[in-house]
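Onboarding guide, step 5: your first structure request.
Type a short instruction followed by the sequence, for example:

Predict the 3D structure of this protein.
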Amino acid sequence: MEQSLLYGSRGLTVLSGSGDRVTDATGREYVDFLAGHGAALFGHAHPRLRLALEEAAASPWTIGAGLSSPFRERFLADLESVLPESRAFLCNSGTEAVEAALKLLRVVHPGRRRILALRRAFHGRTLGALGLTFNPRYRAPWKEWLLSVEHLEPEQLPDAVDEHVAAVFVEPVQGEGGMATLSAGVGKALTEACRRWGALLVADEIQTGWGRCGALLASSRTGLDPDLVCLAKGLAGGLPAGALLWRRRLGSFPPGGHGSTYGGNPLVCAVGHAAFGLLQEGLLERADALGKIFRDALGAISSPRITGVLGLGLLVGVSLDEPAAPIVTALQERGVLALSSGPKAVRFLPPLSASEESVRRAVAALADLLSAA
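The system replies with structure tokens like these:
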């Protein structure tokens, strides 16, 4: 009951799933392009991830941060290869990765007080992360407790950076913010401004990273060269996993300055390492190619209700001239699970293993409902 009060209810009970499909309690099958809000990045019950989970389950599931584990060491090595000359802190969610970034920037820049972020940004709902999040509906009940953050349009960010700015937080693609994609020109200018003034550039790649956008980091496709990167969602195929990566030159937390009971547990790290292995087997290129097929097919829908097709790789959006929520509901009725992005965009989060057939089915369902009166 409490879950439905917090998140709403789609009136759907999922009993099974495989790949890009799930089946509900009535036996009806759905194309799942909701995919656990993007966390089921490799699809449901991927055989390689299941095998890694089963093998790791025979060893201790959690051991605490003070003890070493070969599962953890392998996964840390994977992560630290994503951002050159970096360190990694393992946690359990994207919001925790953002909170770790906020603490680290205070270590690096204790005297700087300005923090910049994008309008329409979403970085989480804990108090620190909520200060970075733009949506007034999320912020209003807690506003007196939140960090002071300046929310600007993308093109305003580079000129706003000065010697008082501690950090700039950006999402390469705004998953909750209408699917706006940062232009490479703005990303490059922002990177240069942060370097010039010594401000930290933090890329929130919780939804865009780990292959979804056709690269390990979408930053590389949007002109960003970040100092810190927040990862989560599909990091371990949908198990609770998050990570903060940061450049070694920045130093680290003071002893005892941060921690996590479950972060870096061997079970999750084993699956995360297997997921990283999958990414090396053509999934990045596949995300790019299938995402183009998806966006081209959506762009071919003849409907004045569509105002644009958006996204990068397999983070795909359709902007509308009307509220998106009823469209998301109607798609579910037609057997396709999706979600909204801001008030007037529909967001699709296909797993990297999605079939072209499922993409075509999603496009046909949207075309059908938009042609209805």
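Each response can be followed by summary notes, for example: The longest helix spans residues 266-299.
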